[in-house]
Amino acid sequence: xxxxxxxxxxxxxxxxxxxxxxxxxxxxxLESCLRWLADGSHWPGxxxxxxxxxxxxxxxxxxxxxxxxxxxLYIPSTQTGxxxxxxRGLEQVQTRFVAITDDDCFVTEDWLHKMTKRMRKEPGTIVxxxxxxxxxxxxxxxxxxxxxxxxxxxxxxxxxxxxGGNAGLAMDIVRRIGLFDEHPCLQAAxxxxxxxxxxxxxxxxxxxxxxxxxxxxxxxxxxxxxxYADYARSQGGFYGTHLRWGNWIxxxxxxxxxxxxxxxxxxxxxxxxxxxxxxxxxxTLYLLPGIMAGLSRKNxxx
Length: 302
Hints:
The structure is a single chain. With 302 residues, the chain is an alpha/beta fold. The protein folds into two domains: 14-217, Spore Coat Polysaccharide Biosynthesis Protein SpsA, Chain A, CATH 3.90.550.10; 221-295, no CATH class. It is built from nine helices and nine strands. Strands 1, 2, 3, 4, 5, 6, 7, 8 and 9 form a nine-stranded mixed beta sheet that branches. 46% of the residues are buried.
């Protein structure tokens, strides 16, 4: 699955109306991410990398793509947080459409072509797709494997349909919604927030299972447990942020997760499932503090 940029890169047909934004900490896995993009059936107008690690290697990798004919833009950043990384990239997009992915995601050969085709057909709709697992196969982590086309027109109780590592949308939509929320209390729930804000504005989200990329699973058990804690705290921050305005579906989502956490923790112990234990413990211990952090935000916070 891991690739490098050293083998010759063959030029591909250009989709000049789409850019790709990738926030990164400058991790080595980004090289493989870029190679999978370069090996796709089509190239975007530009690949925009926002590097919060400010690694000299990232600029070298982009130079190699540039030499092969794939347009790139390197943005070193002193900020932290995925939302800030995405936003600094979105601010530089000059094309009609943008796709967003992460540095530990590997796109399939026809990913960009199918993503762009769907956006051109439905320019007023946010497009997401399937996320399969690659790398460590011991636990399905951050995957979305539904095989049915789904369309969402309003906020959902059981699902947050915006899949930020595999997303595409018109810049007109970005201008309607605004940028991603950079507040620290939403650090790992920026996608839940962005999708919710879109649906509240009446902007549909379509899930197309034929638009596929791979999420490279590199975390060990301890790192996954820590990530579950981040998710729970940030999801609580998302709930608290929107509970300030009394949105009924947010109340329901928060109540569901507050009760589901202890139940999952207990079920994990009964079945000897350590991953379920870690997820349940995270929700039980960190969701409520996250909600309180979101509730305590000032109404002027963005």
